[in-house]
Design goal:
Keywords: Isomerase
Largest sheet: 8 strands, mixed
CATH class of the largest domain: Alpha Beta
Family: Belongs to the PhzF family.
Structural class: alpha+beta
Number of strands: 11
GO molecular function: isomerase activity
Shape: elongated
Helix content: 10-25%
Number of domains: 2
CATH topology of the largest domain: Diaminopimelate Epimerase, Chain A, domain 1
Protein name: Phenazine biosynthesis-like domain-containing protein 2
Pfam families: PhzC-PhzF
CATH architecture of the largest domain: Roll
Strand content: 25-35%
């Protein structure tokens, strides 16, 4: 099996500048272990794997693709520069005929638009939901001590808890609280 692999420097038009990512074009999904071995071999911060979703489409004319990202040690949920690098391979190397490509990822759909010589990506809006802070008393106490909390929100997509301190908190109070912990 041969897998085309490109090394792309995102955020630049100069060689050896920007943020490098490896991009692999796959006809079909691979075993997770093989993704990991390839990413480890590439030894870049991320290796992106673009997969055709329909066997009848190709990388030159398809508008929707699967996309996964692996570091040398594990799979990740989202990588902006490797997504742009993937779109660059499709648009500039494979001469994809669409002005927009959609990637199906662990973070949902990511769209990359070709606008002149630039590529523009829409990041997912992972909107957090306000939570009852009583559910998180122990975590909040450990994280912020006695500082006044305005809101506690949770994002199901990223699995992150967001704590907004009251506007009366300033750096002085934060630093003093940090010393007390």
């Amino acid at each position: 099996m041969e897998i085309p692999i490109y090394t792309v420097d995102a955020f630049t038009n100069l060689p050896f500048k920007g943020n490098p990512a490896a991009v692999c074009l796959l006809e079909n999904e691979l075993e997770v272990e093989l993704y990991q071995k390839i990413a480890d071999e590439m030894n870049l911060s991320e290796t992106a794997f673009i997969t055709k979703l329909k066997p009848t489409e190709d990388f030159c004319s398809g508008a929707r693709f699967g996309l996964r990202w692996f570091t040398p040690t594990h799979e990740i949920n989202l990588c902006g520069h490797a997504t742009l690098a993937s779109a660059a391979v499709l648009f500039y190397k494979k001469e994809n005929t669409n002005s927009v490509v959609t990637f199906e990822t662990l973070s949902g759909e990511l769209l990359v638009h070709q606008r002149g010589e630039s590529l523009v990506m829409d990041f997912p809006l992972n909107k957090p939901e306000v939570q009852d802070r009583k559910k998180f008393n122990d975590i909040l106490k450990a994280a912020v001590g006695e500082l006044p909390i305005q809101d506690v929100c949770y994002c199901k997509t990223t699995k992150e808890l967001l704590v907004r301190l009251h506007d009366t908190c300033d750096r002085y109070r934060l630093l003093n609280n940090e010393k007390e912990l």
